[in-house]
Amino acid sequence: xxxxxxxxxxxxxxxxxxxxxxxxxxxxxxxxxxxxxxxxxxxxxxxxxxxxxxxxxxxxxxxxxxxxxxxxxxxxxxxxxxxxxxxxxxxxxxxxxxxxxxxxxxxxxxxxxxxxxxxxxxxxxxxxxxxxxxxxxxxxxxxxxxxxxxxxxxxxxxxxxxxxxxxxxxxxxxxxxxxxxxxxxxxxxxxxxxxxxxxxxxxxxxxxxxxxxxxxxxxxxxxxxxxxxxxxxxxxxxxxxxxxxxxxxxxxxxxxxxxxxxxxxxxxxxxxxxxxxxxxxxxxxxxxxxxxxxxxxxxxxxxxxxxxxxxxxxxxxxxxxxxxxxxxxxxxxxxxxxxxxxxxxxxxxxxxxxxxxxxxxxxxxxxxxxxxxxxxxxxxxxxxxxxxxxxxxxxxxxxxxxxxxxxxxxxxxxxxxxxxxxxxxxx
Length: 427
Hints:
Blueprint: H1 3-14, E1 31-36, H2 40-48, E2 58-63, H3 70-80, E3 93-97, H4 101-105, H5 121-124, H6 129-134, E4 151-157, H7 158-165, H8 170-176, H9 180-192, E5 198-200, H10 205-209, E6 217-218, E7 221-222, H11 226-241, E8 244-247, H12 252-256, E9 266-270, H13 271-277, E10 289-292, E11 298-299, E12 303-307, H14 314-326, H15 328-338, H16 345-352, H17 367-376, H18 386-401, H19 407-421
Parallel strand pairs: 1-2, 1-3, 5-8
Antiparallel strand pairs: 3-12, 4-9, 4-10, 4-11, 6-7
Helix pairs in contact: 1-3, 15-16, 16-17, 18-19
């Protein structure tokens, strides 16, 4: 996140009066412009919705990578020009992630899912509550919907579990990892056997950060929740004891740990992590993975579909949202076909109780492990500062984990970087 993002956020908030609260209900357009950062939504759209498209409608996916906030920069640029854009060039649908969803929710650039687009409470009744809470603005208006819920757990290597724990059965491995003290004990056993418990510094961050009981900021004061401190303490211990590979998340070193000879016991992640972040090709550990809840439940990420104010494709947006986020049969099909934990409680119960098996997990039906945690996810501590704060704390602590600076210097660096990004905040 950069100062440009902060400025753009202010501009988005200040410019909301440019749009009327009512969405246009007139003639439908023939070009559907969808702004995305990767091919996750386009693949779901093409596989589970495209056949419903009117023959004379062209779909245009505008993809800009997330790296260096390029996607948000592009989205901010086009939304600020939305009122003056030609009909076929206007944004119709855009995607947002949990970490920065609030940036767009409290603006008039996002349409009211019910009043403007036309979805009803009955349509939305089976979606997990937290997925709607995240996209509800300060006035109680729902501004986006998702086809997925993202409860997380612990993905582990079956062969390493058999060697060190004597079993690879998910229920029994869960018993061995059911709290952090047990998790630490297994980490020591993995080290003794020549394996790393985790890949690196950031692997367990979301398991801690999603369990905070206070937001990053109260008033204008920065708050350090005990869960954040617990992540710092554990990661330093794991680094000093050789329980991790000293890798950073998304790095080549982290990915290498997932390969057949990677030597890393496990990774924390939700269903999308399996599909989009873990190697499935030759040389990978395909089929040697299993899934359990781990020491504590958590959620990570998620992608929400927003209708853009000014769109001339309201009826089509409604049908996309209905089909891809509300229809139970579609939700079952996506879960079984793509491995997503989808945003429909009855659909997930059906899949969890079925003979579905994920080949990557050696045929395990891992959906059952998600059910309880998905229903209990609480996002009441989210704030507009989450993305920036999460990035800055991980960045500031890396040198400390590596032994290059002491903890006091790491905290000083954290507060300096945060206050450069958010000048309104103080310790």
